[in-house]
Amino acid sequence: MLLGLMSMCLVFCDAKRDLKIKVLRASEDCKTKAATSDRVVVHYTCRLIDGTVIRNTYDKQPDTFKIGSGEVIIGLEYGMVSMCVGEKRFIEVPSELAYGEEGKPPQIPSNATLLFEVELLEVKRSFLESILDRKLWFIIYIVAGVFLILLVVFKCLPNLPSQKKKIAKNKKKN
Ligand SMILES: *[C@@H]1O[C@H](CO)[C@@H](O)[C@H](O)[C@H]1NC(C)=O
């Protein structure tokens, strides 16, 4: 598990270093933060360095996608983690975390850095998901539960033979 966490960090922390994130507008009342596996509703513009607009959702409806599912480029997913509802961010995504050397012809050239301005409008989470999202608490509950079960099992079982022995000893004395 520790190895898993470490390797996740190797990928995740490295990626975070390459991203440039700037908060353009903070959320006044941050109640919900976007996390992996959240379904988010966003408005965004995506531009190339030279200013060419690749995508602008303000023209039509906001976009909806699930963070961590690969529906959008990984740089945008990483860049939005722990973003508040109501917050607006500038995210500069290097090509390695976007479309890489291949690009996405004809719109996105090879090795293109993408500039996003993202506004998080909504986080859609079911009740179960919101519980599961508190992963740490979930793990603590499970560990505590297992511990309790072990405690009960081991407290009861070894006592039975030792009590029998005691009874046996008492009988011998008598
Ligand atoms: C893209 O980047 C790679 C690796 O840095 C390089 O080998 C390649 O020539 C670049 N392609 C273009 C079109 O700039």
From TrEMBL:
For this protein, the parts annotated as crossing the membrane are: 136-157
Q: Where is the PPIase FKBP-type domain?
A: 37-124
Q: Name one GO molecular function term.
A: peptidyl-prolyl cis-trans isomerase activity
Q: Which reaction does it catalyse?
A: [protein]-peptidylproline (omega=180) = [protein]-peptidylproline (omega=0)
Q: Does the keyword Signal apply?
A: yes
Q: GO CC terms for this protein?
A: endoplasmic reticulum
Keywords of the record? Isomerase, Membrane, Rotamase, Signal, Transmembrane, Transmembrane helix
**Protein name, entry field:** peptidylprolyl isomerase
